[in-house]
């Protein structure tokens, strides 16, 4: 299939029908939809069963859709040939057209060892062999048999990476803290700001510290600079470069650059170019996670992910959970004018989940050129944001409840807490908020209700809530490695569906290049005190002021 075969989404017949449906349903009210259809919750909720039998309930019923709208959204997916693109992705085809690459992160969680080939070569044996290496290595770190240059066990692992080589591992490490081993700490350094690495290294002992340099390309400036700083810090005490082998490992696709840096390729955990950075937590990039939670738990994380892959591949669109999530997002973004999407985990362990999803969603779908190489004439990627609740309720939820913008929201919670302290009181209070927020956003509070409570005069409109604000509630049984794997892949495939409908390539990231190139050029200009004469007047003024104050 040629990529130029794909039409602009706005030219598809279902797109036009959806525009008409939106006009026809401009007064759609979800509370009234519940009154009309007593089965709405049952009909619009889907339960995902994981490989270990655990379940996650996705309640889509509080969204601003009815059967007719949903049917047209599914029709849109069919006309946009999303199933074909999905099947091509799982077949290892090079659907990342601008980089000429397959999009095959699903092959990293192929624990059932199916034949998953790229260019006629089955990826399963190689993926498994890297996983076995990760297993052996993580076991050695955890049981203390891998020792540093003075014979001491490793107490601190520092992952140095940025973007996908950081956000996934950090998020999963935080989310699965309950599975960690006491006495073994994992830290993450990403920012080029020297403060990040300086503060992480301050309390650490080079004799017991292991660095994982995580970079798909091994050319990312932030990561190579931080890794060199770490090497200098280590050698200041260890002196002999021969000791590096015990304290540095590389997670990368680029063996040549890894060797140049001075890391023995025996200590390199590889993956292939068909793994995009933001989809790489399942690869060797997840080594810090495997060390932190143990390999069995890491494997369970992969299996939970694999189970959603199977669901996504095998389930018809009407019941396909990530597909429904993606279609709802398109509905809000392109027909109801939403600009943003809120993800609020009611779970402190998931506090980095929104940050992780920001890269997944916005680096994937923040594009304005189609796979047919023309500019879109419609909106694409939403601005995704979020913070854990209940904290978020005391911060920006005011705007979500009473602001002028439509903000579709996902609320995520687990029924069972890892910390059921105070006889589970905290958990019950957390859950009461989880239920209350989506209910309040939907039902709102009318003028007559405000008045019935005794409010009069000027205050009445201030206390009104319009309601009819859409949410998807995601209720897991517990945040286990398998459940987390499944939740991440729900969002991966939701993002895939959005991009497939918008007819953009969700798998490249050309938009990050220009800034990188300019920073490199300006970096050289900061090597001396001479004022710069080029650049636009604002940038020139800023650089020259910086030079006066800093150099
Ligand atoms: O600058 C964006 C990006 O390319 C991301 O896509 C990627 O996750 C990140 O940089 C890090 O890249 P690498 O793993 O090659 O260092």
Automatic annotation (TrEMBL):
InterPro entries in UniProt: G6P_Isomerase, G6P_Isomerase_C, Phosphoglucose_isomerase_CS, SIS_dom_sf, SIS_PGI_1, SIS_PGI_2
Pfam families, per the entry: PGI
Set out the biological process GO terms recorded for this chain's protein.
Answer: canonical glycolysis; gluconeogenesis; glucose 6-phosphate metabolic process
Q: Which reaction does it catalyse?
A: alpha-D-glucose 6-phosphate = beta-D-fructose 6-phosphate
User: Which superkingdom does the taxonomy of this entry point to?
Assistant: Eukaryota
> Pathway membership of this protein?
Carbohydrate degradation; glycolysis; D-glyceraldehyde 3-phosphate and glycerone phosphate from D-glucose: step 2/4
EC number from the UniProt entry: 5.3.1.9
Q: Where is the signal peptide?
A: none
Q: Name one GO molecular function term.
A: carbohydrate derivative binding
Q: Give the record's keywords alphabetically.
A: Gluconeogenesis, Glycolysis, Isomerase
Under Gene3D superfamilies, the record lists: 1.10.1390.10, Glucose-6-phosphate isomerase like protein, domain 1 (3.40.50.10490)
The text of the family note is: Belongs to the GPI family.
Q: Which NCBIfam families match?
A: PRK00179.1 (NF001211)
* Protein task: In the cytoplasm, catalyzes the conversion of glucose-6-phosphate to fructose-6-phosphate, the second step in glycolysis, and the reverse reaction during gluconeogenesis.
Q: What is this protein called?
A: Glucose-6-phosphate isomerase
Q: Which organism is it from?
A: Meyerozyma guilliermondii (strain ATCC 6260 / CBS 566 / DSM 6381 / JCM 1539 / NBRC 10279 / NRRL Y-324) (Yeast)
Its taxonomic placement starts with:
Eukaryota, Fungi, Dikarya, Ascomycota, Saccharomycotina
